[in-house]
Design a protein that fits this description.
398 residues, mainly beta, ten-stranded antiparallel β-sheet, 3 helices, 45% strand, TonB-dependent receptor
Length: 398
Amino acid sequence: KWLKDVSWVNFLKLRASFGVINVDYLPKDGSTTVYDYWDQIYTTTGTQYKFNSSYDSEFGSTIIGRLATANSTHEKAYKYNVGVDAVLFNGLDVTAEGYYQRRKDIWVSSEGKYTDVLGVDAPFENAGIVDSYGVELGLNYTKRLGDVVFNLGGNFAWNKNEIKEQLEEPRLYKNLVQTGNRLGQVYGMVAEGFFKDKEDIANSLPQNFSTVVPGDIKYKDVNGDGIIDANDKTAIGYSTTAPEIYYSFHLGAEWKGIGVDVMFQGTGNYSAVLNTKSMFWPLINNTTLSTHYYENRWTPENQNAKYPRLSSQSNANNYQANTVWLADRSFLKLRNAEVYYRFPEEWMKKTKILGSAKLYVRGTDLFCSDHIDVTDPECYGVATPLNKSVVVGVTIGF
């Protein structure tokens, strides 16, 4: 009753839900097959020992590959959702919602709980926990002003997840701990620039990946132990598998049959690791050298280069996962655009055959604003590039 006097609210609905989803399958990860989650035995040849009093060697034997999983159960997802649907000002449709999900009893390896003294692979256990949460917003507005009808709207989604438990082995330094970070998180070295000269190398901490020369990447001592090595790796950037932010917006207008529709789409908080040979890692295994790398490489005259010096072989120091090769994969694209003319109904009636007809020019992926200049952020690796397309056509209805 309290909404009866609120003229600008035409419709309002509040909703909430809770549910539990039981996952009744065992995952398959790479070479890990379903039966690997229980006892696995296999026969091998080589230096093994018979189970007899002579302890003969050089005899193939059957050994346990992995310990059994005891008290296994199904993975579960607990889902919570609240939202609101509304129509405001006689034409503005609004949808907003937030969600929280906890996945638990996820199959994970228990290697982190045991030492190598165990002698065989540790069992899988239903111990993994991942939290996911986010918000989504949708807006759409349609209005007629005389002979003009226009429509505009958009969608926004922010989603995040966090690993709460995965039976991770104890780490020597906090920066190496992965529990508490997102799924698909990138881990690598933090680059501080490139070594300028031999004096710069002599005055810097030792880097244990390979011998460095001027133009090689200089790394940060993240854990503060005075040595640059793999123990300085840490979480860098965002996930490479899915962005935290999705958004899109569209605009359409029509006047006496002449109309235009455009739709933009974008992402945010999204990372890419630029490790494609030839393009970003040149001359490795006889690969080629890209013009992009050549023009942006370090030289004594180009101290503010984007990439390290050019080397003719794989460079263990420079080709570590690090922030030099980490790129912002966020983008904004003009995904679809269309200009059209809709023939008047009176003309269609005169044909006595056609019910409707529309002449249009339609384009797809016509524009992209991003931070990866030389390739599309949606297919930056070894993949078929996305194509721009422009189509002229007619749709006819009977």
